[in-house]
Amino acid sequence: MAEPPPPDVAGFACPAPLRDRPQIVMGxxxxxxxxxxxLEHIFLPAFGNPVLDQRGDSAVLDVAGLLxxxxxxxxxxxxxxVQPLIFPGGSIGELAVNGTVNDxxxxxxxxxxxxxxxxxxxxxxxxxxxxxxxxxxAAAERAGVSIVTGDTKVVERGRGDGLSITTxxxxxxxxxxxxxxxxxxxxxxVIVSGTLADHGMAIMSVREGLAFEAAxxxxxxxxxxxxxxxxxxxxxxxxLRDPTRGGVATSLNEIAAAAGLGIxxxxxxxxxxxxxxxxxxxxxxxxxxxxxxxxxxxxxPADEAQAVLAAMRAHEHGRQATxxxxxxxxxPGIVVMRTALGGSRVVxxxxxxxxxxxx
Amino acid sequence: MAEPPPPDVAGFACPAPLRDRPQIVMGxxxxxxxxxxxLEHIFLPAFGNPVLDQRGDSAVLDVAGLLxxxxxxxxxxxxxxVQPLIFPGGSIGELAVNGTVNDxxxxxxxxxxxxxxxxxxxxxxxxxxxxxxxxxxAAAERAGVSIVTGDTKVVERGRGDGLSITTxxxxxxxxxxxxxxxxxxxxxxVIVSGTLADHGMAIMSVREGLAFEAAxxxxxxxxxxxxxxxxxxxxxxxxLRDPTRGGVATSLNEIAAAAGLGIxxxxxxxxxxxxxxxxxxxxxxxxxxxxxxxxxxxxxPADEAQAVLAAMRAHEHGRQATxxxxxxxxxPGIVVMRTALGGSRVVxxxxxxxxxxxx
Lengths: 359, 359
Prior knowledge:
By secondary structure, chain A is of the alpha+beta class. In chain A, 29% of the residues lie in helices and 23% in strands. In chain A, a hairpin with a 2-residue loop joins β1 and β2.
């Protein structure tokens, strides 16, 4: 008997592995397993090339002899659709700058320049646009980058979302710096630069109208300076990743899968501020799965961990840096957490984002 | 008496020159005078830096010694919100690739790599996404660029627009190539690479359900190869511009203003295909104000014009290249058209776009 014809829209077919869910759902934007589905079955098969296949936070271009000093060019982009546009500790403007600066920094790059493309909804108050743009400019100044090119489009009322901002950025990875999952070794230390889940809980608290005993503010911050300090302390860092959408759980699972190694983390070592911890408890959220916008994970050689931690703690964005766990040869691709009570459990890759529209 | 307080939204004020229209309207995205308002009163004051102030289609970075061969890096971005997503002759996928490739090419750059950021609306058919992505990949292949990094976000049903794509691109401007309004001289020739208004009329015909005696197809095409051929024929081209939103009228007015010179064009020389001409007539549109997505304007030294035209006509995207007019010292900043009947009229800068959501 012949196969039934594939679903068909405007003459196009849905790739076979995605046919049981033939429409976009919110989780496809969450950075977890559903986002991976789109990447693996739509974007990589169509665009596939060695640079994209690295799946880093930014692309590092292998154009031999392009840069004068033997460095390599890093290139990255992020679309931002956070709601609300302004929240405790920041706005879509700071996220749009810091998100791309941080993606560049995670490749070891010194960010050079950003582009900014705005999609505005008819009816947006010009005052709000102007205010967000000025916060964006201040964030660029703090991060030490220029916004050198841009574009603006407008969509009809009811077809958009107030304001979305897509930034792209370019930076220079210094000669000799080579970060990536292939560098990761069993025994390496896993470091986190500070408390987890602040950004996600800040968004959640304003969106749900929750009042905690203290205000929860987004941690949005540019991390290129911190990365430069870490590279100065240890030029042979193995890998950096900023745990945004999907949180630390997603990033650690991605690292374990890409490196083909296991990761063990210690539950008592997970840094969460008391107010964020109680907020997560009330809402039933796992802080490991909640988004951060000013934190990084670093995989470093075990015997360099203390030097890297010292360099991080001397930097304003790494004061609470701490050792979170280690890379192991066992259970490749799996992240395991040792609990305070001596047990252990698998830290799964989240399916979607617990909280849509987080960045 | 004290001034009344400025309009205030979320603690932000509307810049004074924009206060009589304190909300975004469709025309702010049209690329004409209203778009210039946003640029001058919001974006440039906030982000202002020498590269952004050039206001080119792409930024050319002046980082001394960055590139090995003395070239300079070009960087550009474009957000795409066209409706419908698929139209005669192309789709948002081809536009997203060719739009950024062409912005890079207008600075004289050889495009290297693109980023692509997708904002998807919940409910979008995966088949449609897959189809558009595959058209995008084919366009990148034709243009000779790789898509090396990307991002995907999802917004709730009713808060988006199906699919929008923002691309950014980087390219290399060869050493010695220096295009821009400062190069433009009185007496220079103004060349256009082919027929005008095809893209805008293709969108209009499907959106309005108009049937003409022949199908009107978008001219979307990558122009970097044409530019390379033109630079080979005449390395001292003065300026290139692709007349997209707002059409040739907008681009020529921008060139005249930036160069501080006048431009004269000859009405009988304006190349418009018969079917597009009759479509424009029926709809009361001026083909000079309608968008193109695969055409360029070139300002070249007068005594090189024939050599450049010959090189263009030998290239698939320049077969119908023609001399449109000349740069003059008179009426600086003003574009004048000499009509077929021997009269003349000013070609004004359009206020917004005659047709919103064109690219």
